[in-house]
Specification:
single chain; mainly alpha
Length: 61
């Protein structure tokens, strides 16, 4: 069995396991992870806009 097909088989096994057993995290942990991911996504979007020169923030320092 090749490396790619073995990796694909392992990915399929993982997906089946999570479908049956869930990911083992509490609802609060999942909510916290979602909040952190949303904040990271917003930061990445802001950074990309800033690099493009389309976002001008006023620094109050």
């Amino acid at each position: 069995m090749g490396k790619a097909s073995r990796r694909k088989q392992l990915d399929e096994q993982r997906k089946k396991f999570f479908a049956v057993h869930g990911d083992g995290r509490s609802e609060q942990d999942r909510a916290n992870a979602r909040v952190m991911l949303d904040a990271l996504q917003k930061k990445l979007e802001d950074d990309a806009l800033r690099e493009d020169g389309k976002l001008h923030l006023k620094n109050d320092t």
